[in-house]
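Continuing the batch. This is chain 6 of the set; chains 1 through 5 are on the previous pages. Same settings as before, nothing changed between runs. Recording input and output for traceability.
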Amino acid sequence: MTTVAGGALLVVGDVVTDVIARHRGPLAPGTDTAAAIRTVPGGAGANVACWAAYRTGAEVRLLGRVGADAAAWHERELAACGVLPRLVVDPEAPTGTVICLVDTGAAAERTFLTDSGASLRLEPGDWSDTLLDGVARLHLSGYLLFSEPSRALVAAALQSARARGVPVSLDPASAGFLVGLGVDRFLALVEGVEVLLPSRDEACLLTGLPDAADAAAKLSRHVPLVVVKRGAGGALVARAGTVCAQVPAEPATPTDTTGAGDAFTGAFLAALLRGAEPEEAAREGCRAGALAVERVGGRPPGTD
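Output for chain 6:
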């Protein structure tokens, strides 16, 4: 499989507005729970693009769909991260919104309430083969698999990439949504993808195996390169049914784990664009993930 020397990364995925509420301890039903609340730009696809641009000098492009309500703001925020946005403005749906409830305890774990809005209304008409001009790698956000229009766009993008010899990566995005989609259907939809970047929970769900290493090995019989993100456990790299590297996490004191997996993916892809081997790219991903969890929101430093 050939790539474009010095070429760009094209990310296709979700662009949403994140409302992050950081609270301590359990929520208090029926009354108030004190929280620090911020509204920031987000979306798995958009975050990946921003972290990739932060970690590489290569051109990073993003195709996404937003509502007219926040299109200009998201354009500015993406451009400030060094991303070249191509945002389709939906004539009917508002920009997607995610409410992130973040427990400020030691693990900084989060729960998402998601209104996908325009983000999953990307459709084949939004795709053009010319989007791949000068592109060395295509990355697809797994959220695109959770609606019929964006699944059709994924199929069109994969066909175009295959015809041009552009390698494709995909992040499954959400264990919760995967349950609804179904494992067999997911694996059929990602046929032709060359790099899969699941979280530990997603990898175990996709294989039915409780151990992340076993899950990574099994998935790598379906997809040539599998990189399982394990948070504080680092990352696993698997090829051809075998785990070939275990990469430790970088030390970090979590503030907000929102977007940590996106940071890993963006930095990993940036390293591949620079010619790094997968193990070194995974180390870059772990460094970015550690940086991400010490910040509020899913974007790199210097974008506040």
